[in-house]
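Revision sheet: C-alpha cells.
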Amino acid sequence: MLKYTLTMLLALAIAPVTFASLTSTIDPVGGEQDGVEVDPETVLTAGTMKLKDFQAYINAINSTADAGVFDMNGTGGGAAVTEAGTTFSVLSTATVRTNRTDQPAVLATSETHHGFQESDATWTFTAPANRRVTHFGLVAIDWVNADTGMTLTAHFSDGSTAVRTFDDAPSNQDAWLGFVAPDFESITSVSVDVEDGGNWTAFDDMAFVMQPKSATTWVYNQNARIGAGGTAVSTDGWTGSDLTNWVTTNYPGGQYLRNANDGDDTITRTNDSEFSYAIPDIAQEVSFAFDARVIGNNGSAAFFQTGLVDGTSLKLGVGVDFSNSNKYFIITSDGVRHNSGVNVAIGDIVQQFQLVIDTLALAGHGSGTLYVDGVAVLSGIDMGLNTFNLSDLDGLYMRSSNRFTGPGTFVITAAIPAPAALPAGLAMMGLIMVRRRK
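Predicted:
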C-alpha cells in the first residue's frame, strides 16, 4: 500500500491522548503466533472486520493517539492490560492480565507475554473526550493442553451487537477476532465468554482504533483488498473496460492501481459487503484522499483521474494531466475539469492528494479545495452538490491512460454536525464532505 497519513484530517482543537510503547502492526495470525491459522471471518457479518482491513485502518490513522496494537508485554499481575508500564486507558477491566513469563502451555506469541481472561467478563471502553472507539480486535491463541476458546460479543452504541467465536479444538490454532462499529456509532463494550475447559483463555496483539465523535472514516487499501503486485483488480469486484489489464503494481513505498495496456480505460467498484462507505446527506465536510504515483516531465505528465461515483457516474473527482495540460484538476458533479494554476511536479514521485469539500459553502453547492502534499493548489470550486444526494454515492472510480501512474490507498471521511454538548471549535477540520438534497 502507498502510505497515507490522516494527521491533517484528524486535527482537533484538543490535546491528543498518547500511549507509550504502542506498536502499529498486528503480528500475522499463523505466522509469528505459530499455531495453525483459523480464519472465522471468511464470511463477514455486520460489525466484523478482517485482520488485513483492520491493519489498513491503523496504517491510515498513523497516530498512536488514535490507533495502536498492544503486544501484551507489560510486567503482569495488574488490574488492567499494560504495555511497558503504561495502562491501556481505552479499555478498562479488572480481569485482563499480562502473563509474567511465557506460559509453556500456550502457543508461542509475538513477544514473550500474552493476555489472560480467567472467567466470563465484560470489557468496557473509556475513550478520551470527543473520541469514540470504532474498531477493536485481538488474536486469540490456544493452550496446547486444554479447551480454551472464547466468544466475543461487541456491543455498539446503537444497541446492535456482533459476535465472533474462537473454538480451539483441535489444538495448536489461533484466530483474529475483529469488530467495527456502524458508521458514526461506537463500540461501548465487549462481552467475553470463556469456553469451559479448566484453563484461562489467552490472547495477544490487542488492537483498537478511535475516531472523533462527529466523523467516520472509510479506508480502501488495495494491497489488503486485492493483493500483491500483479493481482487483477477484478478479484475484488472492479469492473470496466479492458479489465484484464488492470492490476496492482509494486512501487517503492507501496502499490498503485495500474492500467497495464496504456489505453484510456475506466473501471469502477460498487460498494459491497467487503468494502463500502455511506456519506450521509447531513455531512458538513467530506474528504477524499489518496496517495498516487505521478509522472511529471516538464511539459507533460501522465493522465489519470479517480473519485466517487453514483452508480457509474463520477460525481467528485481528482486527477492530473488531462489532454496533456500538465495540471492538477478537480472534477465537479457536471463532469467539468477545473485545472489548477500549478504544474505537476517534475519526476517519478509519490504525492498525497486530498479533496476537501465544505458542503455548506457557496449557498449549499459546496466549495472544493485540492491539496497536493499538504499545499492547496486549487480552491473555491463550486462542486455542484445541489444536483445529487451524497447518500447516493456508492462506489470508487479510476480512469488512466498510462501504466506508470495511479492511486494507492483511498481514505474517505465524512463529518456531521458535532453534538450540541460539544464546545464550539471541536468539530472536525480539513475533511471532505457533501451535504445534499436533490
